[in-house]
Design goal:
Largest sheet: 10 strands, mixed
Distance between the termini: 102 Å
Number of strands: 14
Radius of gyration: 26 Å
Structural class: alpha/beta
Length: 519
C-alpha cells in the first residue's frame, strides 16, 4: 500500500490540475456537431448584389444517426441594413415540395415594406434534395412521368398502374438510399440547423403553399424556437398528402357552380348560356363531344378529359378568358378559335403539373412564385419523395385507387377521378417515421384567398383549425394561389405587415374584401 501512495498522489495532482468546464462549455461539448457550424459566407454571384451572400452547411442524411452520411444545405442571406431595428432572421419558403428558394431574398429585399424589412436578415435556402442542396434524381423521367396522373378509365387503368410503378421503381433505383430521408420532418430539422448556425434563439418564417405545412411541422417540433410565422395559402395537416390532391376534386364543384353563374351573367360576351344551368349543359356537351372525337389544335390533341383537367379555370374566370374563348368557339363551331385562344398545353391538362403546392400567385418580382426552371427531374423526384414519404396513409392496393376514382368521378365529376386515381405512392418505400401530430399551441398567422385554386379555402381553414392559437386573415374574392405581396396588392397585406413588424397577432380572425377586377 505504501508503494501505491506516490502513484495515487501523482494521479490526484494531475486530476486537480485539469481545468473545470463551465456549464456553457459542458453544454457545447454535448451539442451535436451539425448544431455547432458557422457559415462561411461569400458573395453568391458576380451578377447578384454584393449584399447577397451564400454558404453551405452540412446536415445529417438521417437524424437518427447524425454521425453518418451528410447532405449539403445551401443557404443565402441579405442582412438588415438597420442594426438598431434588427430583430432576427426571416426564413422564406415558396412551396413545392421541390422548389428552390436560394435566390428569393433578392426579391424579398426589393418588395417588403421598409419597416418590416429593417427588422430581419432575409434567409433563403434550397431544401434538402433540391437545387444546390444535394439534389436527387430519378434518373431521367419522360414528360408523361413528370405529371401527377390523369383521369380514370377502366380500359387505361392497367397503364396507369404501370406509370405509377415505373416512377417509383426509377426513383428507388437511382436515389433509393437518400429518398426515405427527403421528408418534411427532416427539412424542419434542417431549419433548426440553420437557426443554430446563424446563432439565433428563434426564427421568423414566411411561407406559401407546401411551405405552410413545413412551417406548421417546425412549430410542433421546435415550438421554443418559433417566432413570427406567416403561413400563406395553407395546406391542411389532416389531408397530407392524398387528401390534398383529392381536395381539388371536392372544391372544384362549388368553384364550377360559381363559374357557371359568372359566365351566365356575361352571356352576351361568351355565349355559353343565359343561366347557370345552360352554361353547365354547354360545358358537359363539349366534354362529351371531345371524348368522342378529340380536337386537334396547334398539334395538341384535346379530349374531354383535357377539358376537365384544369379546375383552376373555374376558380379564376377573370384570369382565364383565353380558355373561355376556346370553349365558346367549340360551342359555336366545334373548332378552336383562329386567333390561337386555346389553353396552352402547360396550362391544360393539370395532370402534367409538378410540385403543385408552390405559390403561383404572388408577383414574380415579389415574394412568390414560380421557381427557376427545373433541370431534369429534380422537382418531380423531391415531390414524390415528400408526398409519399411523409405519411403511411397511401393505399397499397391498386384496386383501391380504381374504386375510389369511380366513386369520386360520380360525386365530383370535374376532377374527382383525376384526384383519386393511382399515384406512385402506392409502390413507394414505407416512411421512416410517422407524420407530425398538431398538438402544440402555435401563435402563428395563416393567410388565405377565398378562391385559391391550389390550396382551396377548405384546406386553409383546416390548417388554421389544426394550429391552436393561430389567427387567419381571409381575403374574400381573392382568386390567386398566394396572398401576401401579390400583384395586385391584397387587402390582407396590411395585417401581415403589422404582424411581421410588431409580432402581435390580431385579437380575432380578420376578413377583408379584395377589389374585384374589371368585368
Amino acid at each position: 500500500m505504501k508503494r501505491l501512495a506516490p502513484l495515487l498522489a501523482t494521479v490526484g495532482l494531475v486530476a486537480t490540475s485539469l481545468p473545470l468546464l463551465t456549464a456553457h462549455q459542458a453544454a457545447a461539448a454535448q451539442t451535436p456537431g451539425h448544431m455547432r457550424q458557422k457559415p462561411a459566407w461569400h458573395r453568391c454571384s458576380p451578377d447578384r448584389p454584393a449584399t447577397f451572400e451564400c454558404a453551405t452547411l452540412k446536415v445529417p442524411l438521417d437524424y437518427q444517426h447524425p454521425e453518418g452520411r451528410t447532405l449539403d444545405l445551401a443557404i443565402s442571406r441579405i442582412k438588415s441594413e438597420n442594426p438598431a431595428k434588427r430583430r432576427g432572421v426571416l426564413l422564406f419558403n415558396p412551396g413545392g415540395p421541390g422548389t428552390p428558394a436560394l435566390t428569393r431574398p433578392v426579391q424579398l429585399d426589393k418588395n417588403m415594406p421598409k419597416d418590416v424589412r429593417d427588422q430581419y436578415d432575409l434567409i433563403g435556402f434550397d431544401p434538402r434534395g433540391v437545387g444546390e442542396s444535394s439534389p436527387i434524381t430519378c434518373g431521367g423521367l419522360s414528360r408523361a412521368e413528370h405529371g401527377i396522373g390523369g383521369a380514370y378509365r377502366p380500359e387505361t387503368f392497367p397503364s396507369d398502374v404501370a406509370w405509377a410503378r415505373g416512377i417509383a421503381d426509377k426513383c428507388r433505383e437511382k436515389s433509393g438510399d437518400v429518398i426515405p430521408y427527403i421528408t418534411t420532418r427532416n427539412t424542419a430539422r434542417d431549419l433548426d440547423v440553420i437557426r443554430a448556425a446563424l446563432g439565433e434563439r428563434k426564427i421568423s418564417y414566411l411561407s406559401y403553399s407546401y411551405g405552410t405545412y413545413l412551417g406548421a411541422v417546425y412549430s410542433q417540433m421546435f415550438p421554443q424556437h418559433t417566432d413570427r410565422f406567416v403561413l400563406d395559402s395553407g395546406v391542411d395537416p389532416q389531408r397530407v398528402w392524398r387528401g390534398m390532391i383529392q381536395v381539388w376534386g371536392t372544391e372544384a364543384e362549388p368553384a364550377f357552380a360559381r363559374w357557371t353563374r359568372w359566365a351566365a351573367e356575361r352571356s352576351d360576351r361568351y355565349g355559353l348560356g343565359t343561366t347557370p344551368e345552360e352554361v353547365s349543359a354547354t360545358f358537359w356537351r363539349l366534354v362529351a363531344r371531345a371524348d368522342r372525337d378529340p380536337i386537334v389544335h396547334d398539334g395538341q390533341k384535346y379530349t374531354g378529359d383535357d377539358l376537365r383537367a384544369d379546375p383552376s379555370l373555374f376558380f379564376d374566370p377573370y384570369g382565364a378568358s383565353a380558355a373561355i374563348r376556346f370553349l365558346k368557339a367549340l360551342a359555336d363551331t366545334g373548332h378552336p378559335p383562329a386567333d390561337g385562344g386555346a389553353p396552352k398545353p402547360e396550362r391544360l391538362p393539370a395532370a402534367a403539373r409538378t410540385s403543385p403546392w408552390s405559390a403561383s400567385g404572388p408577383n414574380t418580382a415579389a415574394a412568390g412564385p414560380a421557381a427557376a426552371p427545373d433541370s431534369g427531374d429534380n422537382a418531380t423526384a423531391v415531390y414524390w419523395s415528400v408526398v409519399c414519404g411523409d405519411t403511411d396513409s397511401w393505399p397499397r392496393d391498386p384496386d383501391q385507387y380504381a374504386r375510389d376514382a369511380v366513386r369520386d368521378k360520380a360525386k365530383y365529376p370535374i376532377y374527382g377521378d383525376f384526384a383519386s386515381n393511382i399515384k406512385p405512392c402506392a409502390f413507394w418505400q414505407r416512411p421512416v417515421e410517422p407524420a407530425t401530430p398538431m398538438k402544440t399551441r402555435a401563435d402563428v398567422l395563416t393567410v388565405q384567398n377565398e378562391w385559391d385554386p391550389t390550396t382551396p379555402l377548405a384546406s386553409g381553414q383546416g390548417l388554421h383549425k389544426a394550429l391552436k392559437g393561430s389567427r387567419m386573415v381571409l381575403a374574400l374574392g381573392g382568386r390567386k394561389h398566394g396572398v401576401y405581396l401579390s400583384d395586385p396588392a391584397s387587402c390582407a397585406d396590411a395585417t401581415v405587415d403589422k404582424y411581421l413588424a410588431t409580432g402581435r397577432l390580431p385579437a380575432a380572425d380578420v376578413t377583408c374584401q379584395d377589389t374585384p377586377p374589371s368585368p
